[in-house]
């Protein structure tokens, strides 16, 4: 039995090539924005355009979190604005300040350092490549002021301790008086009573001779 075999031929095939694309989504790309090759029934329909919606949210301009920024709505200072700062406070200047002034200045320095730390993180996150030197020099001046405040308060504390030790040896000061009067100036009050008694005594020595003459 002979097996059926096709005759060997060197001519090109005469059959028609397949030109129809079997993939219905061929040519539709979300990356390149290409649409289908053939128009569809909805090709002439206008596409809806997105509306620029910005919700109006009321923000308190006096909120405490604005202390982390230079001003409400402002993220960073320019390098020139960052360099516009004064010198640090000295210990000699802070010795004349009250406790309330030192307390307010301390928290002002804390807010300033928070603002500078936020600006430094934003510069690193955005990879801007500038402003680090200006922020560092300004932060150094703020830290000098905070060290001077600690120095002045430490001096006051040591002075208060010395005053307490001196008061313990003073007989006119009673530190255990509680809410009563701590200072009892006994010697001063006795001398004052004697002087007041002498001034109130009647001076009749000059009047008696006149009465005898009558």
From TrEMBL:
Q: State the family named in the UniProt similarity comment for this chain.
A: Belongs to the universal ribosomal protein uL29 family.
Q: Which GO terms describe its biological process?
A: mitochondrial translation
Protein name (database record): Large ribosomal subunit protein uL29m
Subcellular compartments: Mitochondrion
Q: Which domain of life is it from?
A: Eukaryota
A molecular function (GO) held by this record is: structural constituent of ribosome
Q: Which Pfam families match?
A: MRP-L47
Cellular component terms per the entry's GO annotation: mitochondrial large ribosomal subunit
Q: Where is this region: Disordered?
A: 1-47, 176-214
Give the organism the record lists: Trichoderma citrinoviride
Q: Which InterPro entries match?
A: MRP-L47_sf (IPR038340), Ribosomal_uL29_mit (IPR010729)
Basic residues compositional bias, start-end: 15-27
Keyword field: Mitochondrion, Ribonucleoprotein, Ribosomal protein
Q: What is the lineage of its organism?
A: Eukaryota, Fungi, Dikarya, Ascomycota, Pezizomycotina
